[in-house]
Amino acid sequence: MLSTSTKLNPAYRTIGVPEIDSNPLIAHLKLPPDTGDDAFLALGMQPQFDASERKLPTAIRRLRVNRLRRFFIPTLPVHRRALIEICSQVFDGYMARNPMTAEGQSILYGARST
User: Fold this and answer.
1) Residue 24 and residue 114: Cα distance in Å, rounded?
2) Contact status, residue 43 vs residue 75, Cβ threshold 8 Å
3) How many CA atoms lie within 13 A of 46 on its CB side?
4) CA gap 61, 106 in Å, rounded
5) Buried b / exposed e across 5-32, counting CB within 10 Å, b at 16+?
6) Are residues 53 and 22 in contact, defined by beta-carbon separation less than 8 angstroms?
7) DSSP string for 43-97
8) Contact 112, 47 (CB under 8 A)
9) Which of 100, 112, 106, 102 is nearest to 19 (CA)?
């Protein structure tokens, strides 16, 4: 949980696309992966491991095995496509909610559209 004294300073970037550059909700987000290989790297999760854990008691080591369930190798093309599609949908959903536009203000603050 963030304390009230925590300061967040997102890094806003300009990529040359006005609907992204002018929208503070998405200007700091990572772009969707360019290629299937980039998606593969973004999805891959390695289990945490420290060689010193081999010295832990057997009962503790057995409990630590469950970390392998969080290990993921995105081997199927559908995994990569899903990441790219989800990222694209997130961007698309925030584009309409740009607080720097009148339309975005009305969506964000519940004004009726006419």
Assistant:
1) 25
2) no
3) 4
4) 54
5) eeeeeeeeeeeeeeebeebebbbebeeb
6) no
7) H-BPPP--GGGGGS-HHHHHHHGGGGGG-B---SHHHHHHHHHHHHHHHHHHHTT
8) no
9) 100
- Which amino acid is located at 97 in the chain? R
Calpha distance 95→29 (Å, rounded): 12
Query: 68, 47 in Cβ contact below 8 A?
Result: yes
Does this model's pTM top 0.85? My answer is no
Q: Compute the distance between CA of residue 17 and CA of residue 36 in angstroms, rounded to an integer.
A: 23
Q: 9-28, pLDDT tens digit by residue?
A: 888 888 898 988 999 989 98
